[in-house]
């Protein structure tokens, strides 16, 4: 044939600057594209052979990738169908791309994804080459070899070629700035990444071996794709060992997974894949980007956010689907109907698998639960559909290590832990050892206590409260055992209002100076109980816990912790202490109160009068009197407080009560602990 030159047919003026400029960042994918074409050509030939159209020998169809550093070439050779001159003209020269330029500049960040989808695959070779040659011989009996050459501008040459046997060589003359693709190791790495599951053997260089402590090259071809893509096989033909082996091939050195799911759908979309559940012990184990996305066994990406629901990104494995539109932005992906269906399907499959494990062998499921729970909690909090399914297989574990489903737990405590308003209170502990005394008291009352010490449990608790009807969660140490669950007839405090008031003020003074601020309250807890206990307000504590989890922190995180010291009014010690304050300071305080009373009455009368008026109508004399009154009252109040403070600060008993309660919670430390010990000795000596 005569040498022919011509112009590559593109509708937009020139495709090359676009390829070079916009697609630069992802230029390594050229190799994936050229190998895909070689695989396609080989598969087509096999199809022709099966159909009986191709009658020759198939022979060894290995695709070879050869690096020639001296010549600066990278060659991809296949033994597929090859191309005739007409085919080169049709498939290579006429890349009819309507509006390609506009499209490419719009999606320049997704070069990786668009290239294959717009028949631009072959032209990606120009991202890394100064010149590209094709040597091809078609399988057709009469075909002549062709040679095509192009230097990355719209002109090309087409002439008779040299290839003797069926197939195609793509010869890339690698540009100076892309020399990395002339490194054997780099090329092998790329083939490993993109091509290791392709269905035609791919050879690159020679196999290496360790000999006498050195790595040496052997004579054997180095085949990249040694493993079958397990996901493409039928689940019925596979054994659990096959899945485990495949996992360790995908993630060398990883701990064995808990279990796996084989995805296999062909309608209304095509999706295959295998997802593994890793063991997740804590949040730091949650490794994302361990799901690899393939398109017909060609690796596409391992960033699958937007394709699978957020909580599923902690799973490991592979997904293969030709139906995920890769030629669009990620934000668009989320609204794509196919992606939504795929995502919903995966969620459903994962939930079904967990349900199946739960149903078939609850014992084994429970053993795995501690490793699974973070994942399930994450799913329940973030995915409504998953929550609906997980309700049946999510487990609660109590402080004795027993497991319950939500339903079972409701049956267990539903009545016994109902409060006077008809809500059921689920008691929980976040620290079995640290909260032991509270757990014990609750258990003595016949209550059950859940262990909620997981990292997402505070979020899960909030979520469950919004979902479960008439259920509230209360941490065991958030109130005294009597008040954890408010029942109808609770013991009442028998101290008089004055006694309570003086006692509270005195003990508050004794507790002043601790690291955390301490509020004092008085309850009748029963004679047998301790004289004083510390509790932490459920709401405030939760807010602080949640704030600590959130990466930005918030208002609550910076709040100082506060404790409530509950004085047991039924305890003889407290009764005695109350009586003693009254004896010691009652007369003094009452004297001050007598002075305050008339001032308050006068203040009230004046306020009633002035409140009816607009501020500018109030007489100056009244204004002056009001502020004088308020100052006098404040002064007297301060005086009153000083009297009671004086008692509290001096009372060894008051200090002892506070310290004992703190001590029971492991909150008394250092200097304060030493002072307590000294005081105890003194008191015993008396
Ligand atoms: P696509 O693969 O999406 O069709 P490409 O730009 O990658 O687009 O390739 C264009 C066409 O060139 C292919 O469809 C095929 O007909 C032809 N072709 C490319 N590489 C080869 C090859 N190695 N052997 C035979 N034909 C090839
Ligand atoms: Mg292609």
From TrEMBL:
<feature type="binding site">
    <location>
        <begin position="98"/>
        <end position="99"/>
    </location>
    <ligand>
        <name>ATP</name>
    </ligand>
</feature>
<comment type="similarity">
    <text>Belongs to the heat shock protein 90 family.</text>
</comment>
<dbReference type="InterPro" id="IPR019805">
    <property type="entry name" value="Heat_shock_protein_90_CS"/>
</dbReference>
<keyword id="KW-0143">Chaperone</keyword>
<feature type="binding site">
    <location>
        <position position="37"/>
    </location>
    <ligand>
        <name>ATP</name>
    </ligand>
</feature>
<keyword id="KW-0346">Stress response</keyword>
<dbReference type="GO" id="GO:0140662">
    <property type="term" value="F:ATP-dependent protein folding chaperone"/>
</dbReference>
<feature type="binding site">
    <location>
        <position position="33"/>
    </location>
    <ligand>
        <name>ATP</name>
    </ligand>
</feature>
<dbReference type="GO" id="GO:0005524">
    <property type="term" value="F:ATP binding"/>
</dbReference>
<protein>
    <recommendedName>
        <fullName>Chaperone protein HtpG</fullName>
    </recommendedName>
</protein>
<dbReference type="GO" id="GO:0016887">
    <property type="term" value="F:ATP hydrolysis activity"/>
</dbReference>
<feature type="binding site">
    <location>
        <position position="83"/>
    </location>
    <ligand>
        <name>ATP</name>
    </ligand>
</feature>
<feature type="binding site">
    <location>
        <position position="330"/>
    </location>
    <ligand>
        <name>ATP</name>
    </ligand>
</feature>
<keyword id="KW-0547">Nucleotide-binding</keyword>
<dbReference type="InterPro" id="IPR020575">
    <property type="entry name" value="Hsp90_N"/>
</dbReference>
<feature type="binding site">
    <location>
        <position position="168"/>
    </location>
    <ligand>
        <name>ATP</name>
    </ligand>
</feature>
<dbReference type="Pfam" id="PF00183">
    <property type="entry name" value="HSP90"/>
</dbReference>
<dbReference type="InterPro" id="IPR001404">
    <property type="entry name" value="Hsp90_fam"/>
</dbReference>
<dbReference type="Pfam" id="PF13589">
    <property type="entry name" value="HATPase_c_3"/>
</dbReference>
<dbReference type="InterPro" id="IPR020568">
    <property type="entry name" value="Ribosomal_Su5_D2-typ_SF"/>
</dbReference>
<dbReference type="GO" id="GO:0051082">
    <property type="term" value="F:unfolded protein binding"/>
</dbReference>
<keyword id="KW-0067">ATP-binding</keyword>
<feature type="binding site">
    <location>
        <position position="78"/>
    </location>
    <ligand>
        <name>ATP</name>
    </ligand>
</feature>
<keyword id="KW-0963">Cytoplasm</keyword>
<dbReference type="InterPro" id="IPR036890">
    <property type="entry name" value="HATPase_C_sf"/>
</dbReference>
């Amino acid at each position: 044939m005569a040498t022919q030159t011509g112009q590559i047919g593109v509708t937009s003026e020139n495709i090359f600057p676009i390829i070079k400029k916009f697609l630069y960042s992802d230029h390594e994918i050229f190799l994936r594209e050229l190998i895909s074409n070689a695989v396609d050509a080989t598969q087509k030939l096999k199809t022709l052979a099966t159909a009986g159209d191709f009658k020759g020998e198939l022979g060894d169809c290995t695709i070879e990738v050869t690096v020639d550093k001296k010549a600066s070439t990278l060659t991809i050779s296949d033994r597929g169908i090859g191309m005739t001159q007409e085919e080169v003209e049709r498939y290579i020269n006429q890349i009819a791309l309507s509006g390609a330029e506009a499209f490419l500049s719009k999606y320049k960040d997704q070069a990786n994804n668009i290239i294959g989808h717009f028949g631009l695959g072959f032209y990606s070779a120009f991202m890394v080459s100064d010149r590209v040659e094709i040597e091809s011989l078609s399988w057709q009996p009469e075909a002549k070899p062709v040679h095509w050459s192009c230097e990355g501008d719209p002109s090309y040459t087409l002439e008779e070629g040299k290839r003797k046997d069926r197939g195609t060589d793509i010869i890339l003359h690698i540009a100076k700035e892309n020399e990395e693709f002339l490194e054997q190791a780099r090329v092998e790495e790329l083939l490993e990444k993109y091509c290791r599951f392709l269905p035609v053997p791919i050879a690159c260089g020679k196999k290496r071996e360790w000999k006498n402590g050195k790595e040496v090259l052997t004579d054997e071809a180095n085949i990249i794709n040694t493993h079958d893509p397990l996901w493409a096989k039928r689940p019925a033909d596979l054994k659990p060992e096959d899945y485990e082996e495949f996992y360790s091939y995908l993630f060398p050195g990883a701990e064995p997974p808990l279990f796996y799911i084989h995805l296999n759908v062909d309608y209304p979309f095509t999706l295959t894949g295998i997802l593994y559940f890793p063991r997740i012990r804590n949040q730091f184990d949650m490794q994302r980007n361990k799901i690899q996305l393939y398109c017909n066994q060609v690796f596409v990406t391992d960033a699958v956010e937007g394709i699978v629901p957020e909580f599923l990104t902690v799973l490991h494995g592979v997904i293969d689907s030709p139906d995920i539109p890769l030629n669009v932005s990620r934000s668009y992906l989320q609204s794509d109907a196919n992606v939504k269906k795929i995502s919903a399907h995966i969620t459903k499959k994962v939930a079904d698998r967990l349900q199946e494990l739960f149903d078939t062998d609850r014992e084994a499921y429970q053993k795995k639960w501690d490793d699974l729970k973070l994942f399930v909690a994450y799913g329940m909090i973030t995915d409504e559909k998953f929550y609906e399914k997980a309700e049946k297989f999510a487990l609660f574990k109590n402080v004795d290590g027993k497991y319950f489903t939500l339903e079972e737990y409701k049956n267990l405590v539903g009545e016994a832990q109902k409060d006077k308003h008809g809500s059921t209170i689920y008691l929980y502990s976040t620290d079995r050892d640290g909260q032991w005394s509270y757990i014990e008291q609750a258990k003595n009352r016949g209550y059950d206590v859940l262990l909620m010490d997981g990292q997402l449990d505070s979020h899960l608790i909030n979520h469950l409260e919004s979902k479960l009807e008439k259920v509230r969660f209360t941490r065991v140490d958030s109130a005294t055992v009597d008040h954890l669950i408010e029942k109808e007839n609770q013991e009442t405090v028998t101290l008089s209002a004055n006694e309570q008031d003086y006692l509270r003020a005195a003990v508050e003074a004794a507790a002043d100076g601790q690291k955390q601020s301490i509020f004092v309250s008085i309850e009748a807890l029963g004679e047998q109980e301790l004289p004083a206990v510390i509790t932490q307000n459920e709401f405030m504590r939760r807010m602080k816990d949640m704030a600590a989890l959130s990466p930005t922190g918030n208002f609550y995180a910076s709040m100082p912790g506060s404790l409530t010291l509950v004085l047991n009014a039924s305890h003889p010690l407290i009764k005695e202490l109350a009586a003693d304050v009254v004896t010691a300071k009652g007369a003094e305080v009452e004297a001050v109160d007598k002075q305050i009373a008339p001032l308050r009455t006068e203040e009230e009368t004046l306020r009633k009068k002035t409140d009816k008026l607009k501020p500018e109508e109030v007489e100056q004399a009244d204004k002056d009197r009001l502020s004088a009154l308020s100052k006098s009252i404040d002064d007297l109040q301060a005086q009153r407080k000083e009297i009671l403070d004086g008692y509290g600060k001096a009372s060894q008993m008051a200090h002892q009560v506070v310290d004992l309660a703190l001590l029971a919670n492991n909150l008394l430390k250092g200097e304060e602990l030493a002072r307590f010990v000294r005081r105890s000795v003194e008191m015993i000596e008396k």
